[in-house]
């Protein structure tokens, strides 16, 4: 499982990624140290513009879901982050909810980079259905940057 945490910056501020990493880890450390990891423990490193983590989970999907629960907790505690999580099969959060999604979201190719966690809610960026929607909605497979910006700027309704 892999996850990336993107800071949401206001117009007049810049985010220190090392400080953000330290704050995130401080919030979830009690949950991390008490959990028995089956392959690798939770980790997080700074990248150029975001935080990133990757864990080998083997056959134990409980570790994957525990990580996802930690990421949701982070978006409650840190309202200025947008989180993306995926695994070798793609958008793991959509895979589990496939029977309850719009038809287009059930196709891994069309759902790529359209699923984010923001403020403790799952956000699914829809595909533009007509020309009037092309301005706010990314067309095709959006870049992760476009996906994060769409979520933070438009706060699409969460998937229920």
Summarize the SSE layout with pairings.
Blueprint lengths: L1 E6 L9 H17 L11 E2 L4 E4 L6 H17 L3 E6 L5 H4 L12 H4 L3 E4 L2 E4 L19 H11 L6
Antiparallel strand pairs: 1-3, 1-4, 2-3, 4-5, 5-6
Helix pairs in contact: 1-2
Short overview:
The chain has about 160 residues and is an alpha+beta fold. It has helices at about 15-35, 60-75, 90-95, 110, 145-155, and strands at about 1-5, 45, 50-55, 80-85, 115-120, 120-125.
What brief labels describe this structure?
6 strands, globular
Structure class: alpha+beta
The largest sheet is: 6 strands, antiparallel
Helix percentage range: 25-40%
Instruction: Catalogue the unreliable spans.
Output: none
Question: Rough shape?
Answer: globular
Number of strands: 6
Radius of gyration in whole Å, from Cα? 16 Å
Q: How many helices?
A: 5
- The percentage of residues in β strands lies in 15-25%
Q: What is the topology, as strand order, of the major beta sheet?
A: 2-3-1-4-5-6
Average pLDDT, rounded to a whole number, is 85
SSE string, helices as H and strands as E:
EHEEHEHHEEH
Distance between the termini: 23 Å
Description:
The protein starts with a strand and ends in a 6-residue tail after the last helix. It is α+β, with helices and mostly antiparallel strands. 33% of the residues lie in helices and 16% in strands. The chain has a 6-stranded antiparallel β-sheet, with helices on both faces. A hairpin with a 4-residue loop joins β2 and β3 (51-54).
